[in-house]
# Entry
Amino acid sequence: MSKILLVEDDENLGPSLKKYLEDEGFTLELVATLKLAKRDPKKFDMIILDWMLPDGQGLDFLRELRAQKINIPVIMLTARADLVDRILGLETGASDYMTKPFEPRELVARIRVQLRNVKSSHEFLESDHLDLGALHIDDLKREVYFEDHKIELTKMEYELLRLMAREPGRAFSREEILNKVWGMENYPSTRTVDTHVLQIRQKTKDDLIETLRGIGYRMKA
Amino acid sequence: MSKILLVEDDENLGPSLKKYLEDEGFTLELVATLKLAKRDPKKFDMIILDWMLPDGQGLDFLRELRAQKINIPVIMLTARADLVDRILGLETGASDYMTKPFEPRELVARIRVQLRNVKSSHEFLESDHLDLGALHIDDLKREVYFEDHKIELTKMEYELLRLMAREPGRAFSREEILNKVWGMENYPSTRTVDTHVLQIRQKTKDDLIETLRGIGYRMKA
DNA sequence: GGTAATTGTCAAAGTATTGTGAAAAAATTG
DNA sequence: CAATTTTTTCACAATACTTTGACAATTACC
# Structure
């Protein structure tokens, strides 16, 4: 289930492309401005970036990404057949490009090439399991053990636990948790986080997660 | 430990990379020309190939290897702007690529992924059958037995079962299953996977395959 | 100690995902 | 090319999960 960030301000193209790609089985997040795009690009497996954006150049965004060593594949969409833009884009680190207008089918094919062949580097660098005292998270099996017995977590509980277990001792605000686990769209209320923390606490029968009143939560180190 | 052939003519990068990888526990052989590389590539477990070589194209070397049915993983090192080369390389059968400059750490991670893949498929190829509790897959005959009686599976069902049985306990997303069983061309909807899982479940009359809601499926270990 | 704000807890309502069978489409076979 | 088998899609049912909201418990602050 690959997550794609679509940066497109065209009010027709954006939503229709989103729908098309979702029908193809991808998870999409559509934003219209670079400001929104910059919030947390790391959590995506791929970025599709319109080159002609109102609040700045796509090129700068791409440059920033690469400067931060974020090597997610980026497919750029250029409106005209502007050779200079394409060359600049590729030199800056775009993985591929499409010139508008294009066939959605072709875009899908190119997306698959990128996703199949090049897993994002943070995925490679992350180990496939995580130990924290009595807690053991196996990412490959997607299983969680606590004190040697398996506990069943739902998807959200799992994501939440993993997010916090990766950085034990660090404080997370509810907003940060929502951003990183839920994403920018379907953004539930902050109380939802509480409910999931409760579930995890009940299932592990232990206070792995500490409450920081007025702040958020923290994983015991 | 794994033997790696490093084809790199850069007098700085070559030796330093060799040392770095040797410190990581790999056995390295560094050659600067394709002529040397071609001597006996078969004896290595992996090849790391610089794309920009003086005495010819890395692409040709790769093509030769694959023509001789030598399926050693090849990681190619390319410059950023060589989009065409990258795509050509992957289409010719490169396993992965790194764009220079890169983090040695990341290269190591990618090497491990490739070696792991080869190992599992190699192990599987060596033995012509596979046992998993009451399930027995005879890959030579292409027959499947469950609790000592034969069950008839169609091609897709067989491929799907074999993919998952090869790594019991591991979680597979529908996208990964589609990629590995169906490949890139004629890519059906993700629900197709569900249907085939259903068929297998009905034919084996057992929950060999667990559902991971929101994630995908997993073979019982 | 009293009060307001924050968090814990639970169950019901609302969503999303998956199971299932059958029909349509595609591929294979004779 | 017709018959058969397989694959894929679709619709709807079943199920599991998520979110909300109400109220209780706790904490912080005066």
User: Anything to note?
Assistant: The interface with chain B takes residues 1-2, 24-25, 69, 87, 90-93, 95-96, 109, 112-113, 116-119, 121, 124-125, 140-143, 154-155 of chain A (CB under 8 Å). Residues 190-204 of chain A form the longest helix (15 residues).
